[in-house]
Structure formats: structure tokens, C-alpha cells
Design goal:
heterodimer, A: mainly alpha, Formate dehydrogenase/DMSO reductase fold, 17 helices, 70% helix, B: Alpha-Beta Plaits, 4-stranded mixed β-sheet, 11 helices, 10 strands
Chain lengths: 482, 280
């Protein structure tokens, strides 16, 4: 049986009732590792809460920031989480539009990852503000004094971009879940039934509803793709709009988007391995899908590597003395260890994805995906810190490694993300039931058609060129609905 | 209300966006610091602490880089390996350059820092939310952030009596920087208005200029052609404006330059080069 699963995206002979049963079971009895992870995440999150309370009371000096290092890991972490959110959109929207079928069993948790990493990212601009209580001033609310935010500032664009992206990706996640909610409503009891009954918005699965659903879903997908690209471009302009050496880089928007997709794909791989293990999803999250995800990751990794090298060479040949000094300091200065970690994890480690044996070995993939994401985190930090450490004014050169408070909050953000995600997968199906059914249905027909075509070809060869008619071409569309 | 304002004055705001350095000025305060006669005595810095209610942060925080010295005297040595004492340091009093095309202004999300008609970069403490982008975008690194509630232990009784009532004491989470002693400018303006005359050169003296024992710091209105400061700017062939300037390099009398002029930020402070005869 395992052989069959390995070769196909999914075993098309899965019965629909079994898909329902398996996914619903996943929401009820996970492995012990699930609860351990929840506990670890909760502890991390509580540490961060304590750290934030202290920092709120004392001021940002508690984070160990100083004059050249006005920003540090908070901003790096912010960019990291925003980046992470992009892969969900890639999987659910971009691959949806280009009809990549294999995305179907895994896009749901990727989409959830998008929403939750955005919810994590959104905290960081707040945490890092000196006066958090005045946060709403960056929004153009109706002020009785007629005061507006400064629309020239990339931080204001950030506020718009992130809130738009968060709300639309949450909406996208929710809309994609509606048919599944209805299935859950029919198969559960007690409070769950009540909850899903409300959330499925009266879904009956009739023809009109499906048509409207598809249209809405496609519309949102089309809306989300340019939005995702623009969000990270805007985040990159937090740096690119400044005049600091190492920040004022024209290639930053595409570089950031590539980096975002890269770290997001790596995160999908991590979560893939975790969920597959926690919820015994071996039949749905198949090795074939993992392989496709890793191939995608590898491609994006190469794009990122290319853009990174472009940035280095542009700086090197640009002969802007400040930029060049910062680049040299990155590679040889006090942050050199971190820089080479980034190069190793981001540019060298992805080459392990070329080997099929490794791609199909889950523990290895777990470690590799963590390494890739470590590289990507460090990359964000390598954008923020070295520039501030060695900017224009030599009097203000300084090397800084964040304080305990800062580390606690950064670690805690992983806890918060983990908590949100784990609660989500327990409450909602992490595998899209209706789309898996759709996938099985399509596969069945594809196989059927292939067989037909084969038969046809055989008869053609045998029966000395009868008049060519019959057999539909393989892969004909027209099989819609689940 | 505000929409109407935007619609009615659209061309005005548009012009501001198209021409980055464009402002309509009443005055344009500037400074000249003669490094040749600066002795690095730090009295400018001390005077600034007294005048502007700057928090004394203590040794530990100072070493962490959390000091609040709006006016700092930077020290540089030509030769690091050589004998420090023998050679002597070069001093560079560094303060907010109040740039004409200031990089800190466009990046503030709440417009807490803006350009006044006096040619100053004003910092509105009450509006600041502490995103610290302005400081990150400042090539001179002369913006100081209140990382802690410094006021709690900066002025223990009875030192709180020395605080200048003309300006506020800042709490944590707010960015601050040299304002060219804006409280003194305001006072002088009010006084001139009461006496029904235009402000004359010498009406405003910043605390640092006042305290400088060698008179290395000259402060004044660069738009007033008769002021001492604009005469110095003219003499050293430096003009206001964001673009790199051509100077007569053969003339040794001319030693004016602006720091990071190549970044096109149009600093308001003219530094006069230090001249040393090494054989002496």
C-alpha cells in the first residue's frame, strides 16, 4: 500500500466517507507530541508576556537598544513573520490559479499559517514602539485637530498593508473552509456542532452555492496575489526608503518577496512534517506532495540566492564607500559568524533538496527546513543590525547583541504562533476535505482517461488504422464539483 | 475639514512633494563651527545639558550608548597606533544639523518631526510615538531616544530646581534632539515682535554658542545677508541647498565644509576645517 501512496499525489481510491472520518479523527485524538508542543509554546508565550510587561513599564532600554541600534531583533522578527505569511498565499492562491492539484491536501494549514504569522508579525511594530499606547496615531482616523499621519512614511504604508493583508487572508481562509464546516456540522455533536453550524453559514452544498463559492474563492485568490507581493515590497521599503548603507537598495522589494516565499515554504515543510506525525496524516500529506513542496522551495531558494548575490555584487561594484564598508563588515566584522551562517543555511543547505532520498525522509526534511528558516531569520537580522552597527558616522559605531528581554519576546512570538496554529488544527480541519475529495475524483478520471487512451491506441495499432474517432483526449476539463 | 484643506491647497502640497528641499522660510537658522579654534573643552555640551533639560543617564547607561547628549564632542585621531597624547585628538562638536532636506522627516509615521518656517527640524515630543525610524535614517546619529524614564533619577532633589521651565522634561518612549534652542528663538521672536522690529543678528544665541570659551560656534540666520553666520558661509563659499558645491580649492583661506554633504541632505551647520602646522 505504501508503494502506491508514494508514487501518487494521493491514493485516488480513498473513499469519501473515509476522508471525512480521518480528518474528523485528526481533530479529536492527536498524538502525545501535540500536547507537549502546546505546553512548550504556552510556556514560551507566557515568558514573552512577562518580558513585554516589564518592557512596557520600564521603556525600551530594557530591550538593550542604544543609539545606533534603534531597531534590532524586533524588526528582524517582524520581517521574518511577515515573510512566513507569504507561502500560504503562494500555495492557496497562486497554485490555485495555475491549477496545481497537489496543493489541495496541504493548502489549508499553509493558509492558516499565513493568517497566524501575520497575527504574530503585527505585534512587533507595536512591541517596538516607544509609546505603544499611541499606536493608533499611525492610522488616518478622524481627529478633532485635523491631524493626519505622515503618508510619506513607509511605516504608515506598513500599517495599511498589513491590516489589509491580514483581514483578506483571514477572510480567504474562512471562505475556503465553508464547505468543510458543513461536513463537520453534519458529523459532530455538542458544542462543535453548534460552532460549525454557525460558521458554515447555512451551507447545503447545492449547485448555486457551489457556483457562488467558486467565484468568490477565485476572486479573493486573484485579489490576494498582488496584495501579498505588495505587502512584502512595502515591508522592504521600510529599509529601502532610507538612506542607510545596506538598506538603500533598489532590489529590496523582489529580494524580500523571494525571501518571504523561501522562508514560508521552509515553514510549510516544517509544519508538514509535524502535522503528518501529530495527526497521523500519512495518507493525505504524502511523500509525493512533500517532494513537490521541496522542489518548489529549492526553486525559490535559488531565486533568493541569485538576488542576494546581485545585491552583493551591485554593492561591490557600485563603489559607494558606505555600502561597501557595511558589506565588508558583514563578512569580516563582529557579525561575520552570523553572516556566514546565513550564507550556509540559505544558499548551501537547499542543495540537499536535490537528493530524492533526503526529500523522502521526514526527520531529515524537518531538520533541513528548520535550518533553512534559521538562515532566513538570520538574513533578516543581517539586514537590520550590521547597517546600524556601522552606518555613516564612525563615532556611533557599535556592536549589539539583544538583551534577555528582547530574546524572550522573540522566542515568545514563536510560542504565540505555535499556540494559535495548534489550536486551529485542533478546532478546524487542517486538511481540506472537500478539495481532497475533488482531487481523488479528478485523479480517478485522469487514470480512467489514460486507460481509455491506451486502449484506444492499442485498438488503433491492432485494427490497422480505423477511422480516428472516439476517446476523449486525456485531461479534458469538465469534471467540476465534489 | 482636512480633506477640504488638501483639495484647496493641493498645488501647494504637491510642490512640496516634487521639490524635496523646497520650503518657504521666514528665517533659516544656521551655524558655523570653527574646528580650528575648538579646544574640545565640552562646555557646549555642558551648557546644552543645563539649557535643554537633558537627562544625566549615569555611567552604566552611558556605556550602553543610551546617553542623551544633544551636543556631543566627538574625538578622532589620525593615527591610531601612534602616541595619542603626543598627537592630540581632533574634536568635532556634533549636534543635529537641522538639514534642509532632512532624512528624518519623511520617515516619521506620525509627522512628529517636521520642518518649521524657521528652517529648523522641529521635534514634537507629544506627537512622537517612538518608532525610532527618524534616528535610524539620520546619517549623523544625533537623535536621542528616551530608552528609560530618565527623569526619575536624573535630577534628585534639589537638582530638579535647575530644570529650565521654558521646555518640557521628556518621558520614556520619545525621541529628542538638538532644536537650536528653539525656546530662545521663540523668546527672541516674541521680544522683537513686542518691540515692533525685525529680529536682528545676535538676538538669538544658542546655549552652546554662548558657552563656547573660544567663540568657535557662531549662530544666526543664514537668510539675513548681514549676519555673522551668513558672512562666514559666503566667505567659505558654501551655499544652502541640497547639491554638492563647487569650491575654489586653490584658496587656502577657504576651509568650510558640511559633513556628509555628498548625501544631499543640506545640513545647516558649516564646519571650518582645522589647520595645523605639523612642524610646530
Amino acid at each position: 500500500m505504501s508503494q502506491v501512496i508514494e508514487d501518487k499525489v494521493i491514493d485516488e481510491k480513498l473513499e469519501w466517507s473515509r476522508i471525512n472520518a480521518d480528518v474528523i479523527a485528526s481533530m479529536q485524538a492527536p498524538r502525545k507530541a501535540y500536547w507537549i508542543t502546546v505546553f512548550v509554546c504556552l510556556t514560551m508565550f507566557l515568558c514573552a508576556i512577562a518580558a513585554e510587561i516589564y518592557q512596557y513599564k520600564m521603556g525600551l532600554g530594557a530591550a538593550g537598544l542604544n543609539n545606533p541600534h534603534m531597531w534590532d531583533m524586533y524588526i528582524a522578527t517582524f520581517v521574518f513573520w511577515i515573510g512566513m505569511s507569504h507561502a500560504g498565499t503562494l500555495l492557496s492562491a497562486i497554485l490555485h490559479i495555475i491549477h496545481a492539484q497537489w496543493r489541495k491536501p496541504i493548502y489549508r494549514f499553509a493558509e492558516a499559517m499565513t493568517t497566524f504569522s501575520l497575527m504574530t508579525a503585527g505585534f512587533f511594530p507595536m512591541i517596538h514602539l516607544g509609546r505603544v499606547w499611541n499606536l493608533y496615531w499611525v492610522l488616518p482616523y478622524v481627529s478633532d485637530r485635523g491631524i493626519w499621519p505622515n503618508f510619506r512614511s513607509p511605516l504608515v504604508w506598513d500599517a495599511f498593508a498589513i491590516s489589509t493583508y491580514l483581514s483578506s487572508s483571514a477572510l480567504f481562509l474562512f471562505i475556503g473552509m465553508i464547505p468543510d464546516m458543513a461536513i463537520l456540522r453534519d458529523h459532530t455533536t455538542g458544542w462543535r456542532k453548534k460552532l460549525y453550524g454557525i460558521l458554515c453559514l447555512g451551507w447545503r452544498g447545492d449547485d448555486r452555492q457551489w457556483r457562488n463559492f467558486r467565484r468568490t474563492y477565485m476572486l479573493l485568490a486573484c485579489f490576494l496575489i498582488p496584495l501579498a507581493i505588495s505587502v512584502h515590497s512595502i515591508v522592504s521599503s521600510d529599509f529601502a526608503m532610507s538612506i542607510m548603507p545596506g538598506w538603500h537598495v533598489t532590489t529590496f522589494p523582489p529580494y524580500f518577496v523571494a525571501g518571504a516565499l523561501y522562508s514560508g515554504c521552509a515553514a510549510i515543510m516544517t509544519l508538514f512534517v509535524c502535522l503528518r506525525y501529530f495527526f497521523r496524516m500519512e495518507e493525505y500529506m504524502t511523500l509525493n506532495i512533500m517532494e513537490k513542496t521541496t522542489k518548489l522551495t529549492f526553486a525559490i531558494a535559488m531565486v533568493w540566492t541569485y538576488l542576494n548575490l546581485i545585491e552583493f555584487s551591485a554593492t561591490w561594484y557600485g563603489h559607494n564607500i558606505y555600502d561597501k564598508e557595511v558589506l565588508i563588515a558583514k563578512a569580516t566584522g563582529p557579525y561575520a559568524g552570523v553572516f556566514w551562517t546565513m550564507i550556509f543555511c540559505g544558499m548551501v543547505v537547499p542543495f540537499t533538496l536535490c537528493f530524492q532520498k533526503l526529500r523522502r525522509h521526514m526527520p531529515t526534511m524537518f531538520v533541513i527546513s528548520i535550518l533553512l528558516n534559521l538562515g532566513m531569520y538570520v538574513e533578516r537580522w543581517m539586514i537590520v543590525a550590521p547597517t546600524l552597527a556601522q552606518a555613516h558616522s564612525p563615532h556611533q559605531w557599535d556592536v549589539l547583541w539583544g538583551s534577555v528581554i528582547q530574546w524572550a519576546i522573540v522566542f515568545g512570538s514563536f510560542g504565540w504562533f505555535g499556540l494559535l496554529f495548534l489550536v486551529f488544527v485542533k478546532l478546524f480541519p487542517c486538511v481540506s476535505m472537500y478539495e481532497v475529495k475533488e482531487l481523488c475524483f479528478h485523479l480517478k478520471h485522469e487514470i480512467h482517461e489514460e486507460e481509455l487512451a491506451k486502449k484506444h491506441a492499442a485498438t488503433k495499432a491492432a485494427g490497422k488504422a480505423e477511422e480516428g474517432s472516439g476517446g476523449r483526449a486525456p485531461g479534458t476539463p469538465g469534471l467540476e464539483g465534489a | 475639514m482636512s480633506f477640504k484643506n488638501i483639495l484647496e491647497n493641493f498645488s501647494y502640497y504637491r510642490r512640496d512633494a516634487e521639490d524635496g528641499g523646497h520650503h518657504e522660510y521666514d528665517h533659516r537658522f544656521g551655524m558655523t563651527i570653527d574646528l580650528d579654534i575648538c579646544t574640545g573643552c565640552n562646555s557646549c555640551s555642558t551648557a546644552c545639558y543645563a539649557e535643554n533639560n537633558l537627562a544625566v543617564v549615569g555611567k552604566e547607561r552611558f556605556e550602553k550608548g543610551q546617553a542623551m547628549h544633544w551636543m556631543r564632542v566627538e574625538r578622532y585621531w589620525d593615527n591610531i597606533e601612534g602616541d595619542y597624547a603626543e598627537e592630540g585628538a581632533k574634536f568635532l562638536p556634533m549636534l543635529c544639523q537641522n538639514c534642509g532636506a532632512a532624512t528624518c522627516e519623511p520617515v516619521c509615521p506620525v509627522a512628529a518631526t517636521y520642518h518649521t518656517p524657521d528652517g529648523l527640524n522641529a521635534q514634537v515630543y507629544n506627537r512622537c510615538i517612538g518608532s525610532r525610524y527618524c534616528s535610524n535614517n539620520c546619517p549623523f546619529r544625533v537623535r536621542y531616544f528616551n530608552f528609560w524614564s530618565y527623569y526619575e533619577d536624573s535630577w534628585p532633589e534639589p537638582l530638579n530646581m535647575q530644570l529650565n521651565p521654558d521646555l518640557s522634561v521628556r518621558d520614556k518612549g520619545v525621541m529628542e534632539k538638538c532644536t537650536f534652542c528653539i525656546q530662545r528663538i521663540r523668546t527672541a521672536k516674541d521680544k522683537a515682535q513686542r518691540e515692533e522690529r525685525v529680529m536682528a543678528d545676535g538676538d538669538v544665541v544658542t546655549a552652546c554658542a554662548q558657552a563656547c570659551p573660544t567663540g568657535a560656534i557662531v549662530f544666526g540666520d543664514t537668510m539675513d545677508p548681514d549676519s555673522r553666520v551668513s558672512k562666514l558661509w559666503e566667505k567659505h563659499q558654501v551655499h544652502r541647498g541640497p547639491f554638492l558645491q563647487k569650491k575654489d580649492k586653490t584658496n587656502e583661506e577657504i576651509r568650510g565644509y558640511r559633513i556628509f554633504d555628498e548625501l544631499n541632505v543640506d545640513p545647516s551647520i558649516l564646519y571650518l576645517e582645522r589647520v595645523r602646522d605639523t612642524e610646530v
